[in-house]
Amino acid sequence: MSKKLKFIIANLLFTSLIATAQIDINTDSSKTEYTQIHFIKLNQANDLFTYWFQSDRNYSDGVNIEVAHRIFNNKVADFILLGCKDTPYKDYSLAISQDMFTPKNTKTTELDTTDRPYSAQLYLTYAKYSNNFWNGRKLVSRVFIGVQGPTAYGKEAQNTVHGMIDNPLVNGWDHQLRNGLIIDYETQFIQAVPATSHLTELHLFTVGHIGTLYNFAELGFRFKIGRFTDTYMNFYGIANPKYKHKLTVNDLAKFSKFRKKIIPKRIRQKSAQEQIDYVNNKLNRKFQFYFFTEGMVNFMLYDGTVQGS
Q1: What CA–CA distance (Å, rounded) separates 144 from 302?
Q2: What is the pTM of this model?
Q3: Domains in the chain, ordered, with CATH?
């Protein structure tokens, strides 16, 4: 098999690999309480798999496996992780991740002090996604605990992938940053703005991250257009066939003025029951098709992948 063919196969297997497997929720159909969505998500990203950008420079490779389940919802997590007050729309997840960073020249075995160092991280992430559906607000909090250095097995993981696709081995991992502890905390606040409609969503967001690995702040926007559910009910608008939570006519009064724009104008002119039926159908859409874009500015105070944990 040619090297190019092997590369194409590897590209199909790994590039932007996002596989979700939903776990059944035992929900009594007569109940209307909110029950969080359950899923398993695998995400693999590697700049090597982009054939014309085989640089393996800076952020080189990463794999993330996230499990969302109600068993991660407990009093300790609810206390430690910040969230919106007095809301039932809360989801919890646990993820394991491995990230790798390399300099420009990965062929030399010598230490290059003019470029960024090799570094690898292996860590767990405990996350809480909390939503104020009525006002279009989301507060996400995450705790990161793990290690950086040889204990994260970056050398072994990256060279295994390179061997699978007959690419040169990365030779400088012996000079990677030494072992260090990762204990980080992050909050992300997202707010929908009045430009939102039943076909579009426009959000402003801010992120604050502090810990032994990263210290940074971020400000940005996200825009989405197409056919979708809603960002402010669960994680990020994931469709859930087992979803039994139904809004009632009384809930219509809880919507802020601009949030009612998720209902088309022609529907807003109809009865309250028809309006709430539209919202319930929208939240349960099994098929979604949309485009999105985002932009942000970032102020990095400390980067432990360069300076050490």
Answers
A1: 16
A2: 0.84
A3: 3-307 (2.40.128)
